[in-house]
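Translate sequence into structure tokens.
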Amino acid sequence: MAEDIKTGAGPVRKPHGKRLGRELAMSFLFSCDMRGETPRAELFDSFFETASSEYADVDAKTMNRAKEYAVRLYVAAALKLDEIDAMLIPLCVNWEWKRISAVDRNIMRIAVAEMMDFDEVPLVVSIDEAVEIARDFSGTDGGNFINGVLNAVKNKLVSSGRTLR
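Result follows.
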């Protein structure tokens, strides 16, 4: 769980490993998406080295957990990218897939990969985390849009036999 750190400017959230891992996985997929590259371990290692410098205030144990979780997430998303996109595209009513911001697309991809493959994470937690990340990286409108789409994904998964966890 994230801890509040009191500062003169009000509370600041200290990220936990899974949250940071989700952010890193999304950022990595976003980076690959923008360059038209297939996500690969060599690219992630280089990405992580650069990205981790932005989190100098995060302790080494949390960064290691974040990296492990990010790797699990981006691999799960990359392996099922076509399946994930095929699930998401029809649910983005009135939106062309390529016109949705790359940040929002990749937040949803990471969340759906987590919902499909990470049984230890309740479906609603994946949605809530994606919405919070969207609000941090994309704004309130992105968060609301992602919430609606991911709730439809959750309903689809549950109706096809997945448990709500």
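Note: Residues 1-12 have pLDDT under 50 and may be disordered.
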